[in-house]
Amino acid sequence: MSVFSSPAFAPLANLLGQLPPDRFPTHAELNALPAVDARIHFVAPPDEGGNYERRVHASGAVATRADNWHDLFNALVWRAFPQSKNALNGLHVRELAGIGRLVVVVRAMLPRYSMKVVSSLLAPRKTSLRSCGTLNGARCSVKSVQMS
Fold first, then answer.
1. Using one digit for the tens of pLDDT, what is the confidence trace for 39-48?
2. Ramachandran bin of 126, using left for φ above 0, alpha for ψ from -120 to 50, beta for the remaining angles
3. CA-CA distance, 118 to 128, in Å (whole number)?
4. What span, in angstroms and rounded, lies between the C-alpha atoms of 56 and 40?
5. Three-class SS of the chain
């Protein structure tokens, strides 16, 4: 039984099934996976370094190290959830440029509260929440807002 048969990998199962089972895939094999966003492609990291997020945003080139689990799963998530990855990349680029701020917007579980109330509840904590999922049982989403 493969570790990839775990339910945790279910969203990636179709993609994992298209990769070589006995070795890490090449960039060409990753680029051959079905893509909703054809602009995104996987390349070897550049020698000069630079900013990963800005490069992805500008050219669609996702620096992907060979034989690296983190980068392999990053590539798979780019293929499986391109809108989410593009949205997060855009937020990172705005943050790096100093024109946006990542804030948490709590919805769904708190329908009777206005955003002003939720914002004021979160603000005193001065918590930088950069990931999303749940916050004290409430569903949340990440949004970018203009800095004052």
1. 999 999 988 7
2. left
3. 15
4. 8
5. CCHHHCHHHHHHHHHHCCCCCCCCCCHHHHHCCCCCCCCCEEECCCCCCCCHHHHHHHHCEEECCCCCHHHHHHHHHHHHCHHHHHHHHHHHHHHHHCCCEEEEEECCCCCCCCHHHHHHHHHHHCCCCCCCCEECCEEEEEEEECCC
Contact 75, 41 (CB under 8 A): no
Q: Quickly state the pLDDT bin for 118 (edges 50, 70, 90).
A: very low
Answering whether pTM is above 0.70, one says no
- Given this model, what pLDDT does residue 83 score? 92
